[in-house]
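Quick entry, no commentary yet.
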Amino acid sequence: MQPAVLTAEELQERLADEFPEAFHPDNGLAILDVWHRGCRVWMGFAAHQLRPGGTISGPNLMMLADVSMYVAVLASIGWQPLAVTTSLNINFLQKPPPGALIAECRLIKLGRRLAVGDVGIRSEAGEDLVAHATSTYSIPPMSKV
C-alpha cells in the first residue's frame, strides 16, 4: 500500500494553522490515522451536539463526514487547502447515542480534478454504522504550496 503524502500530525498542524476557527485544541476533532486514499477521524462528544431526543444532530454527523473526506484527500494528494466539497450525500442509519464518534473514509476514485469518497461513521462504543456518506471533492490544479 502506498503511504500517505502527509502524516496525521502534519495534517493536524496545518489544518490548525489554516483553519484556526475549526481546528483548535478544544474542537473535539482528532485525526487518528491516515493512509493513501483513506483516514480515520475521531469526534469527541459535547452536550451542545445533541438534538431533541438525546441523539447527536445531523449537522454534526455531516461535519464529521466532510472533515474526514477533506483529510483523506489531503493525505493522498498533499497540502491543497483549496480542495472543496462539490457534493455530500448522507444516510442516517440509526440514532447515535451521546458519545464520541469515529469516521472512516475511503477514497474510491482519486483523479487529478475529482476525488470520490465513502465515509462510514460509528459510535465509538459500537460496531454498527450510525451514518454513511458519499462525497465528491474538487481538486484545484496542482500548485506549489
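second:
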Amino acid sequence: MKHLAALAATAATLTVGAGICQAANGDPVHGAQIYQRCLACHSLEHNRSGPRHCGLFGRPAASLPDFNYSRAMKATGLTWDEATLDQFLENPLKAMPGTKMAYAGVKNPQERADLIAYLKKATLDPEICK
C-alpha cells in the first residue's frame, strides 16, 4: 500500500510539480541528435525494450496494449505531455521508482527541451507515425 501511495505522489509531482518546461523553446533539429541516445531501447514506430514513441503526446502512461510495462509505470495514472516528459527524462529512476527505464536521464534542461520538441514534432508526423 505504501508503494501505491508513493507512485500516486510521483504521478502528482510529475503532473503538477514539473515546473516550467522549456519545450516551447526547444530545437527539434538538435533534439533529433539527442534522440540517437534513445535508439538503443526506443523507436518512433516500433516497440523495442522500451515502448514506441509514435502517438506519445496525450497518451496515458503504460497504455500501449502490446508492451509489457513495469508496475510502477502502470500505476502512475499520468499522461505524457511536455511537463511530465521534462520531469521524467531528467532522472527516470528518481521520478518514478520502479520504472524499467534504467537510464540516468538527460540532465541538461536545454537538451531535454530540444528532445521534447523533436519528439513532439516527430511523433505527430503522419509520414513517420502511420
